[in-house]
Amino acid sequence: MFEDLFSWFQSYGLFYALLGLFLIQVIDATIFPALPELFFTLAFMMDPTWEWGILVLATTVLAEITGNSLLYGLVKRKSLPEFIQKAMKKWTEFIFVKDERIILINRIAPVVPFLGAFIATCKWDYKKSMLYLVMGGLAKYGALLALIGLLNYQFDPETAQFYSILAIIIIIGLSFVSSYLYRKKIEKNH
After folding, report:
1. What's 172's DSSP letter?
2. How far apart are alpha carbons 119 and 145 in whole angstroms?
3. Per the confidence metrics, is the pTM higher than 0.85?
4. CB pairs under 8 A, 24+ apart, for 36-40?
5. Residue 9 confidence class, pLDDT cut points 50, 70, 90
6. What value, to the nearest 5°, has the Cα angle with vertex 65 and ends 61 and 67?
7. Which helix (DSSP H) or strand (DSSP E) does residue 138 occupy?
8. Which three-class secondary structure state does DSSP give residue 112?
9. DSSP letters along 43-73, please?
């Protein structure tokens, strides 16, 4: 589904590819996981230059701010049912970091889904949360951009694209495994 959407935007040029990437990233932050790393990679592979990479990185970070802010505002305005709020607060008690810094951990091991809702429900400082979101996004996607750029430098475009997508699949897999292990460790300690 998302590949068709991305292809449609891509067929209209680079600006629409950025728009498609933005929308996919917002959906990922607000509605359901949409493999943002994969679409980030596909967007960069359209024009693997550092100028384009900066635009793709900036679009991704802006989309994360937008998506999480939308979810934050929605939950702040129309609070979640009490049992969901209790479950969310209880979940954050298991994590050794109990405040906005969870956002940074979430970049390595996704332990907090629907981050904007957690920011609102746990009453974290919004500005500090957005700062951590930007810092974490720049670090995560900047490292990913460097990896993909290195692959593009080392290999021909077709081979680089194959290895880039393979690297993303491995990174997503490792992210899920680390998240699972982290949750198990937290549950075991409590």
Report:
1. H
2. 27
3. no
4. 36/60, 37/144, 37/168, 37/171, 37/172, 38/165, 38/168, 38/169, 38/172, 39/2, 39/6, 40/141, 40/144
5. low
6. 110
7. helix 126-154
8. coil
9. HHHTS-SHHHHHHHHHHHHHHHHHHHHHHHH
Question: 119 is written with which tokens?
Answer: 């920011």
d(CA 64, CA 36): 10
CA–CA separation, 66 vs 57, rounded Å?
A: 14
Name, in order, each residue with C-beta under 8 angstroms of 176's C-beta and a sequence gap of 6 or more.
110
The whole-angstrom separation of Cα 17 and Cα 44 is: 10
Q: The domain containing residue 18 runs over which residues? A: 2-189
Q: Alpha-carbon distance 78 to 44, whole Å?
A: 37
Which of 20-29, 77-86, 165-174 bottoms out in mean pLDDT, i.e. has the lowest?
165-174
Lowest-confidence range among 35-49, 56-70, 150-164, 176-190?
A: 176-190
